[in-house]
From TrEMBL:
NCBIfam families found in the cross-reference section: PRK11433.1
InterPro entries registered for this protein in UniProt: 2Fe-2S-bd, 2Fe-2S-bd_dom_sf, 2Fe-2S_ferredoxin-like_sf, 2Fe-2S_ferredoxin-type, 2Fe2S_fd_BS, Aldehyde_Oxdr_Iron-Sulfur, Beta-grasp_dom_sf
CDD domains reported in the protein's UniProt record: fer2
Database matches in Gene3D superfamilies: 3.10.20.30, [2Fe-2S]-binding domain
Organism: Methylobacterium cerastii
Keyword field contains Iron: yes
Signal peptide: 1-19
Domain 2Fe-2S ferredoxin-type: start-end pairs: 30-106
Protein's UniProt name: Aldehyde oxidoreductase iron-sulfur-binding subunit PaoA
Alphabetical UniProt keywords: Iron, Metal-binding, Oxidoreductase, Signal
Length: 197
């Protein structure tokens, strides 16, 4: 009796070759345009495409990494309209006409951004996987401090802030380095902040 019931149940299930799997409707596409590293880019994307995937898979700028894909590691950090974001957590279509800066737009070999040069000088990387996100975040951290945006360790929430180890460590806490180059990263940021003061 059990064998007969199992046979009847299997007969009721459509074969994989003949039936379309559930949820295979065509994706909804939308046009989106933004400026990436100073260049206007126009794409037509599935509306579910993250900014990270749009930049990596469609524009072939692979500096930003897909680490955790949950906004927990910071490897995907980009600077969008002057603010750092985890690009894995935001949809590309949400950034129509935005200005997006990736590690590729900060500097090039032979013409490094000061933060890139400081990371090299202070050995602020080891395996290098997190480095693009660390550098983009570092550049934005200095801008945040200069703009008077407080952090959780800021003593005065309505004042000007200094580039201290505590401020840097708090603000960079969303960028994980599995190799543990944190002290070198703090030194690199401190040097660049001092030169820009």
């Amino acid at each position: 009796m059990v064998a007969a019931s199992a046979t009847a149940a299997l007969a009721a299930v459509p074969s994989a070759a003949g039936a379309a799997p559930a949820g295979t409707d065509k994706p909804v596409l939308a046009k989106v345009g933004f400026t990436v590293n100073g260049e206007r880019r126009e794409l037509e994307l599935d509306t579910r495409t993250s900014l990270l995937d749009a930049v990596r898979e469609h524009l072939h700028l692979t500096g930003a990494k897909k680490g955790c894909d949950h906004g927990q590691c910071g490897a995907c950090t980009m600077i969008v309209d002057g603010r750092r974001i985890n690009s894995c957590l935001t949809l590309a279509v949400m950034h129509q006409d935005a200005s997006v800066m990736t590690i590729e737009g900060l500097g090039k070999p032979g013409d490094l951004h000061p933060m890139q040069a400081a990371f090299v000088k202070h050995d602020g990387y080891q395996c290098g996987f997190c480095t693009p996100g660390q550098i983009c975040s570092s550049v934005a951290v200095i801008a945040e401090i200069k703009s008077g945006i407080p952090s959780h360790v800021s003593a005065d929430l309505n004042g000007t802030y200094e580039v201290t180890d505590a401020e840097i460590r708090e603000r960079m806490s969303g960028n994980i380095c599995r190799c543990g180059a944190y002290s070198n990263i703090v030194e690199a940021i401190t040097e660049v902040a001092g030169k820009q003061a």
